[in-house]
Design goal:
7-stranded antiparallel beta sheet; 2 helices; Glucose Permease (Domain IIA); 11 strands; about 160 residues
C-alpha cells in the first residue's frame, strides 16, 4: 500500500520531470544553428580615404576603389557556392561579407543589397536584391590582412546568374 506522502512525492517528481523537459526543449528550440552570424571585421592592407558607408556632402558613399558597381535593376544576387553571409562590421546596414570553404583565401564584399539573407547558404540561394550593388574581392595576405583584388568577370557573373 502506498501512502499519501508517497503518491505526492511521485506526482511531484513526474511534474518536475515534465517541467525540466519543457525548459530544456525551450533552450534547444531557441538555439538554432542557422542563427544569423555576427558582424565580420575585415582588416584591409590598403587604406583609402573614402569607404562604403562614409558620408560626403550629405550623401552616403556606396562603393570605393576596388569595387565594381552594377545597376542590377532590383534583380536578385545569388550564392555562387556554399558559404556564409555575414554583415560587414560597422557597415551592417550597407555591406555583407561572403566566405566559403570552397575558396578559403578569398572573401567577397557586396554593398547595396536590400534585406540580405544572412547565415549559411547553399549555391544558388538568393542573397538579396538591389539596384546599385557593389562587388569587391578580397584576398588573404600572408600577414592575415586582406587586400582588394580585381574581381574576375566570371565571378561577378556567378553572383548574377542563378545556377
Amino acid at each position: 500500500m502506498v501512502s499519501d506522502r508517497g503518491q505526492r512525492k511521485n506526482c511531484l517528481n513526474s511534474r518536475l520531470g515534465v517541467l525540466a523537459l519543457v525548459l530544456l526543449g525551450g533552450v534547444w528550440g531557441c538555439s538554432s544553428p542557422s542563427a544569423n552570424p555576427g558582424p565580420r571585421n575585415v582588416t584591409l592592407s590598403q587604406k583609402w580615404a573614402l569607404q562604403p558607408g562614409d558620408r560626403l556632402a550629405g550623401y552616403q558613399v556606396q562603393s570605393g576603389l576596388g569595387d565594381i558597381t552594377l545597376d542590377i535593376e532590383g534583380k536578385r544576387v545569388f550564392m555562387p557556392f556554399d558559404g556564409q553571409v555575414q554583415p560587414a562590421e560597422g557597415k551592417a546596414d550597407l555591406c555583407v561579407i561572403l566566405s566559403s570553404p570552397d575558396v578559403p583565401a578569398y572573401l567577397f564584399r557586396l554593398c547595396g543589397l536590400r534585406q540580405p539573407k544572412l547565415g549559411d547558404l547553399t549555391q544558388g540561394d538568393p542573397i538579396g536584391n538591389g539596384d546599385n550593388v557593389s562587388f569587391a574581392t578580397l584576398r588573404r595576405q600572408a600577414d592575415g590582412t586582406w587586400a582588394m583584388v580585381e574581381p574576375a568577370k566570371e565571378m561577378i557573373e556567378q553572383f548574377l546568374d542563378q545556377p
